Amino acid sequence: MVPRMGEGFGTPLGFVTTVPDTHSAAASPSPVPRKLRRIEAVPSNDPAKPARRSSSASIPAEEEQLHFYAFPTIEQLRSRCTDEDQLRAMGFGYRARYVVECARTLTPEVVQGLLTMGKVEVVKTNVKKGVKGKTIIDNEEDWATRTSRITEEKRKILTSFCGVGRKVADCVLLFSLGERTLVPIDTHMAQLAMLYFKDELGPKPEKPSAKAVKSAAKAKAIAIDEVKEPALTPAMHNKMQACFLKAFGREAGWAHSFLFSDRIGEQK
What we know:
By secondary structure, this protein is mainly alpha-helical. The chain contains 13 helices and five strands. The strands form two sheets. Strands 2-1-3 form a three-stranded antiparallel β-sheet. Strands 4-5 form a two-stranded parallel ribbon.
């Protein structure tokens, strides 16, 4: 969907032209490989002008063009992304209303506030030195308390947008707003949390049946699949995230990326 947003509402950056690589085609299976012929940039005389592709009639039959677009700016989204029917035609489905409403709500001031909220300098000593324009945190406990409060303030802003819930808000906080201690909780991460932090979160999960465990290689995936995660209430979200933070520290968000990728890989 990100490429569709760029093509539909963003600024064109340029395109590459490819042609069939007849030299490699004989030794390669289908489809026929292609090679780069040229790269062309689109002049940025009018960034507000809608993106347009070259007419197919002007492109030789053997050539193909791959166009690149910048992701739309806030101003572009607010001015262009106003038609739900257009977004549905682009494949956004039920998300069309969310995109239009968020584009209307999202302003440069809101974004700037999210980016600058809670900028602090962390000092791990008990000596507080006055630094103009900066907040000094003198120990780890103060850092954790302040970080938690700021994260919650940002989350409240994000979840006020149409269609944005706790998990999506936490993904934005982690991947776009630098909250690297945060682990977004969905069904996959909840199952992992219940498997590895069962003592902190609740009763032990039931063991898989002997019949289900056909090989040692599959045992881990089956065990996770059979774990029943509890209702993901805000309180349970907080408990699970606290467990991941305790286990992985300030870079728990990085751990989330590895754990989530590994979990998804097991299901393929």
